[in-house]
Each structure stands twice: as C-alpha cells, then as structure tokens.
Amino acid sequence: MSTFQLSLVSPEKLLFAGQVDQVDLPGAEGDFGVLAGHAPVVAVLRPGIVTTITGAVRDRFVVFGGLAEFSDAELTILADSATSAEDVDLAELKTKIEEMQEGLTKTLPGAEFDSAVARLDHYKSMHITLAPATAF
After folding, report:
1. Does the structure show a pLDDT above 80 at 45?
2. Are 81 and 97 contained in the same domain?
3. Residue 96 included in any domain
C-alpha cells in the first residue's frame, strides 16, 4: 500500500509526523478517510477522533476542531486543540459534556442553539468512543 506524509499539529505541539497508509478524519460535513493519491482537499474538522493507520498500527488522537489540507502527497492537520487518545482525561471530558448539557437549558437563538447541540453531540460521541463500555 502507498503511504503519504502526515503532520498533526496543535497550538501546543507537533503530535504526529510520519508516513501513514490511511487517516480517518472527523469532517464538519461528515467523517472521511484519506489514502495516498487522494484528490487535493481542504476540510473543516469538528471535534472528534483522528485515526492514523500504518500497517497494523492504529493511533488515535482527539481533536477539538481545526483544518485538514491534503495536497502533493501530504496531509496537514492544524487542530484547534488536540491530544493523544491515551492522554484524554475521561472525567474531565464527561464534566465538559455535563456543563454543555446544562448550558443548553438556557434560551439560545435558533442557530446558536443548533450549533451548541451539534457540538454537544460530537463531544458525547468522542466520550463514548474513548470510554470503556461501562463509563456511560
């Protein structure tokens, strides 16, 4: 299988740089995968999990939004905030989800409410994906 260069960067640090076979991304318009030879693309990322695949090795990173650009056999992910899935504090993430749920009880204008609900759904899906089966 052909590989391509991936760079995953957050404002704090470079989380990953290397050759990969595939990357699965949480796009704002839906999840998508990138393989070598993919058409050039720039996509907005929603909060979610980025999965890198190199042979039989899968690495997961939690991103809280950002941009992804693929061109010239290189994928660059500029995350608003990101961390390795192993480093995620599930208790902190659960607290953030609960705070967001409480915030939704306040009256928000239509589009702002829809956006807040969508963000909450993405955080919940991350927590469920990262947590052991008994965590929720």
Report:
1. yes
2. no
3. yes
Q: Could you list the residue range(s) of the whole structural domain that residue 34 is in?
A: 4-85
135 assigned to some structural domain: no
Same domain, 68 and 95: no
- Give the global pTM: 0.72
pLDDT tens-digit map of 73-101: 999 999 998 888 888 777 877 777 677 67
pLDDT at 61 over 90: yes
Per residue, the 3-state secondary structure of the chain, as one string, reads: CCCEEEEEECCCCEEEEEEECEEEEEECCEEEEEECCCCCEEEEEEEEEEEEEECCEEEEEEEEEEEEEEECCEEEEEECCEEEHHHCCHHHHHHHHHHHHHHCCCCCCHHHHHHHHHHHHHHHHHHHHHCCCCCC
